[in-house]
Design brief:
binds heme C; two-stranded antiparallel sheet; 1% strand; mainly alpha
């Protein structure tokens, strides 16, 4: 599977958004109390269903067309009818994928029956209200020109807030602990694809149905891509650890639930001709023969924290190693180390949300990533994949912040291409080739 590619063209300003405790408690649209009116109610030609962007309007007004034609979310329900889904359903003993709550909770806007308006259709897949919140209360007032804050008070989900956006996207792109809205190793074993995710990259590759311009920045939050990346790492890791700590979710028979582990620690060739896989890693500290906890997000977070809060960086590194080592101990110690690590991860989310990333920060974080590569910490495919998305995100943010010129950008992009090539196929991944590709960034930025 290919690493998601980042088009190098995000616009964003450098700013910090403190994380309000109340905001973090806000329910995602699927669980909130507002009824969903359906995509058709948003997609009228004078509303969000224009064929061309409207001139003189704050928003594009052709959002529906972009979503319907280019955005995979509009096809999320339809894929439940394809052969792969049929096979997954058969393997799991489900009657059909497109009628199973297990699949619909992420592949459609599966709110309760009494929360569905007259024009609501499940077949619309992941529609406007899956992300923007049930529109029953705000549909009328937002048409009449309510402000963003007023809309939010009436139930619009604030997708511009990076913490809340992370919570929303991760709820489907990883899952929700203590819920069936979760892809277990059993579901993956039945044929569901692996779900790599990085918030800034995925925000960028979702076909944009909005423009971050001066007008937008006045109305809404517009964090830098690096900040979105940093927050996304922490929020995603928090979700993973919460699932590890959830008693109904954290075991598969005698094994721990394996989605939190590095897939390729088990699923790889044993032939040494492809690559000599096993090597001790400083940040892990386990002997050979143990599956590794997937620490890709943790390596990224450590790099960020080392720059913005070195004490937190050390704490994250120490707690990460503790968790790795606990995998060789009993289940209780695994749980207790996961709990300790979650505290540091939540601290990281708060720190990242309150930090305005400067040009110097961006450069330092980039160098920090290269150092992790050199130390062999990006040896696992999952970490390499996160590193490539991170590099794309950082380079793009540096461009936006004016930290690099056109000549530098060209060289960086060429190097990024080499990293994409080295991670193009997880089955053929060679850590040595990737290490060389990433080391090639050194010297390209001061
Ligand atoms: C926790 C949320 C979640 C659940 C539960 C879930 N999926 Fe998915 N599924 C996703 C996401 C997210 C992707 C896209 C991954 C990507 O491309 O990055 C996906 C991708 C897929 C794909 C590949 C789509 C494509 O375009 O090739 C299929 C097929 C699929 N899911 C079927 C199912 C079936 C069948 C079920 C129920 C057994 C299910 N999914 C349950 C979130 C979920
Ligand atoms: C997968 C999640 C997702 C889906 C589905 C989605 N959006 Fe969005 N939308 C976003 C994000 C993220 C933003 C950018 C952050 C923001 O402005 O809140 C956004 C922004 C917008 C904006 C704000 C533009 C501005 O300048 O303020 C409008 C309008 C919008 N979406 C309409 C729609 C409509 C209409 C649909 C359905 C046809 C839709 N969206 C589907 C996530 C989504
Ligand atoms: C209700 C569940 C849900 C939510 C919320 C959601 N997604 Fe998705 N997303 C999916 C599913 C399911 C797919 C796979 C659809 C397919 O392949 O047909 C997907 C696919 C994608 C893809 C395409 C990936 C690829 O491999 O090409 C991107 C990009 C993406 N989502 C970004 C986001 C972002 C950014 C957010 C948050 C603003 C978000 N999604 C929120 C369920 C969701
Ligand atoms: C601790 C080792 C281990 C880890 C980690 C692990 N798996 Fe597995 N996986 C297995 C075993 C054992 C089977 C059963 C193999 C069989 O049926 O032949 C399996 C089966 C599968 C299968 C179906 C059988 C096959 O090999 O085609 C898929 C797909 C799969 N796993 C995906 C994943 C993904 C994705 C991840 C990471 C999120 C993952 N696994 C993590 C051990 C692991």
């Amino acid at each position: 599977m290919r690493v998601a590619r980042l088009a190098l063209a995000t616009a964003a300003s450098i700013a910090a958004w403190p994380l309000a405790a109340s905001a973090q408690d806000l329910k995602i649209p699927l669980y909130a109390a507002d009824a969903h009116v359906g995509v058709t109610s948003c997609g009228g030609s004078t509303c969000h269903g224009a064929v061309e962007p409207f001139k003189g309007s704050n928003v594009l007004q052709n959002e529906f067309v972009t979503w319907q034609r280019e955005d995979k979310h509009s096809r999320a329900y339809a894929v439940l009818m394809n052969d792969r889904s049929k096979r997954i359903a058969r393997n799991l003993g489900l009657e059909a994928a497109h009628t199973a709550k297990l699949c619909l909770d992420c592949h459609s806007d599966n709110v309760a029956q009494d929360m569905r308006g007259r024009q609501f259709q499940l077949s619309d897949g992941v529609g406007c209200e899956s992300c923007h919140g049930g529109a029953r209360r705000w549909l009328g007032t937002h048409v009449a020109g309510a402000t963003h804050d007023e809309n939010v008070k009436a139930g619009l989900y604030p997708t511009d807030d990076p913490v809340l956006r992370a919570k929303l996207c991760v709820s489907c792109h990883f899952g929700v602990a203590s819920d069936t809205k979760f892809v277990t190793h059993k579901i993956m074993g039945a044929g569901h694809p692996r779900m790599p995710f990085e918030l800034d990259t995925f925000t960028t590759i979702q076909p944009a149905h909005y423009v971050v311009d001066d007008d937008y920045r006045k109305r809404k939050k517009s964090p830098s891509g690096v900040q979105v990346w940093a927050i996304g790492q922490a929020m995603q890791m928090a979700a993973i650890l919460e699932s590890v700590l959830d008693g109904s979710r954290n075991r598969q028979g005698v094994f721990p639930e394996l989605v939190a582990f590095d897939c390729h620690a088990c699923h790889h060739q044993m032939s040494q001709e492809i690559d000599l896989r096993w090597q001790g890693r400083r940040g892990v500290g386990l002997p050979p023969g143990y599956p590794r906890f997937n620490d890709a997000n943790l390596v990224m977070m450590r790099v960020i924290a080392n720059r913005i809060d070195p004490e937190l960086g050390r704490r994250l590194a120490a707690r990460t190693t503790d968790l790795h080592k606990a995998v060789a101990g009993g289940f209780d110690s695994y749980q207790s180390k996961a709990r300790d690590l979650l505290v540091a991860v939540n601290d990281m989310a708060r720190r990242a949300a309150a930090h305005g990333f400067s040009k110097d920060d961006m450069q330092a974080v980039l160098t920090g990533l290269l150092d992790e590569g050199k130390a062999g910490e990006l040896f696992d495919y999952a970490a390499a994949e996160q590193a490539v998305m991170a590099l794309g995100s950082i380079i793009s943010a540096m461009k936006t912040a004016g930290a690099i010129d056109a000549a530098q950008l060209e060289k960086l992009n060429a190097q990024l291409e080499r990293c994409y090539a080295a991670t193009a196929d997880d089955e053929l991944f060679r850590p040595g080739d990737f290490a060389a590709a990433i080391e090639g960034f050194r010297g390209l930025v001061r």
